[in-house]
């Protein structure tokens, strides 16, 4: 009867572990994640351990081969446990390692040698193997659970459940090895439990597999959220760069539609400013001097208007200011402040012409902008006429040069 139960339990475990191993092998090929490669290798190590077990029971190899099989079995089981831990910790914290590759191989080799040399009975193998698995699984489960991260609770539960089962199996093997430690009421059930416990292990291993998938999903979801946040931030940076004039640091004309939308339901003063004789500055003093004039004018604009006013470099030496809540008179006062400020600056003198209109609530902004532009050109023409008149009057009153 015990042999029949063992065969049934082993058949369940073999089919279960094979399905999990194939599942992770396929998943690791479709989802290129280092964590999944660890898990796929872990389940194939478990398949190898089962293959050693079946070889021992079904083929009944010569006695001299048994130490090799014992060493191979415990080595594969330890590899299974360590690889599961490595995959779990790598999912929780990318780049984390349980052991270095050399340390990993050394620990497994040493454990396999100990198993081959001293674990001469099934009970001793069960005691050593389940004590090791219990300590490692429970320890890893506690580490994962301590983080309390989204998606990792099932994984922590899988490790803790599998470790707890290994602890129970360790106790069962101890009682089978030393019957004096077994309570009288448990002794009759002990052989049955040892025959079927591997089928119970299969259920906990599916819980481990489920925990891995959910933890991986949680990790990928967090990474996607982080990438999306970074992408949105990058898009916002690009938008700011696209809406910013690199020379003056002012907003460029791309920002005007948003500024106009913000004052659509209220009134605003709309100013269109243009530097006087800017081409002459470039021609006489070079484009470097012209750029310096533009930067100084932009700084003066910022300082002369309010923080909430939108100051825009419209094109070349043309600038636009949208000043919410200001009427034309208040805007003209700001312009006077600007002229005074410019007059106090060192360097080439900067003069400008300005057109001011009121952008009424609900008015079409493009039409108001055309009106401000026209008002600016009218002011520029008036300034030129005034300049010519003053020049003519100066020449008329200038005394004649005495003949030599």
What would you note in describing this structure?
The protein is α+β, with helices and mostly antiparallel strands and 404 residues long. The chain has 2 domains: 2-234, Rhopdopsin 7-helix transmembrane proteins; 251-392, 2-Layer Sandwich (Alpha-Beta Plaits). It is built from 12 helices and 5 strands. The protein has helices at 2-30, 34-59, 66-92, 101-118, 122-147, 153-177, 190-242, 256-262, 278-285, 287-304, 328-343, 365-397, and strands at residues 251-252, 268-275, 310-315, 318-324, 352-359. It has a 5-stranded mixed sheet with strand order 1-3-4-2-5, with helices on both faces.
Keywords:
alpha+beta; Rhopdopsin 7-helix transmembrane proteins; Alpha-Beta Plaits; 2 domains; five-stranded mixed sheet; 12 helices
Structural shape: rod-shaped
Q: Can you tell me the CATH topology of the largest domain?
A: Rhopdopsin 7-helix transmembrane proteins
- Second CATH tier, the architecture of the largest domain: Up-down Bundle
For the report, how would you describe the main beta sheet?
Answer: 5 strands, mixed
CATH structural class of the largest domain: Mainly Alpha
Can you count the helices? Answer: 12
